[in-house]
Amino acid sequence: MQLRFLGTGTSMGVPVIGCGCAVCTSDDPRNRRMRTSALLRDAGQTILIDAGPDFRAQALHADLRHVDGVILTHSHFDHVAGIDDLRPLCDHSGSVPIFGSPRTLADVRERFSYAFTESSVGSTRPSIELRPITTPFQIGPTAIIPLTITHGTWPITAYRIGNLGYVTDASHIPPESADQLRGLDVLVLNALRYKPHPTHFSLSEALDVITDLRPRRAFLVHMTHAFDHAAAGAQLPPGVAFAYDGLEVSID
Q1: Domain range holding 173?
Q2: Which end of the chain has less neighbouring CB within 10 Å, N or C?
């Protein structure tokens, strides 16, 4: 199983428009963070995790030519705005299934209503199938377990896929979901900034979760310009690292 981080930034990305801070003006490419998304390759399957507004650029950087399915964590703009850019992949892959909670997919259907309208034809719409999930499911031979987590007051979805746990935009992980995230080789977890935030884990909160779940390795995502990759990364405990756009990791 191979995971590629397509983007590791928060909803505004890094650099932030109009910001002249040291991170936003850094020459370190690891400080350039598109909106958080990932690409998983497993057992011949290519699975996209979220499709935000930077998806077109991310797909080109990754030389993405085929996708077998998309799994969505929730329907905030920075996680679904790139769904229309699936169109050329639909040409190569046929109709692309999109999996997510019933609430998430109801929002997708509303925002991309033209994709489901008979009068909208040709290249004006992506060919997508919405597949609501509440229980474990599969994309080809790849088994996926959806887990309910909390994003502020909003229940959203994390995923366990083999020995990978993928959790973003969380502010709380209920005990029953935490139990499903133990024994991992790799945990992907959001860490927004140093200061507390009402809807996202701060760095210290994310590190507390990692201490509890004890994955072999943990990679932090959904980060603001609060973190300089090199300087802040040097302060992380062993086995924990800030992910960066384009990083690829193998999962046992």
Answers
A1: 2-134+143-244
A2: C
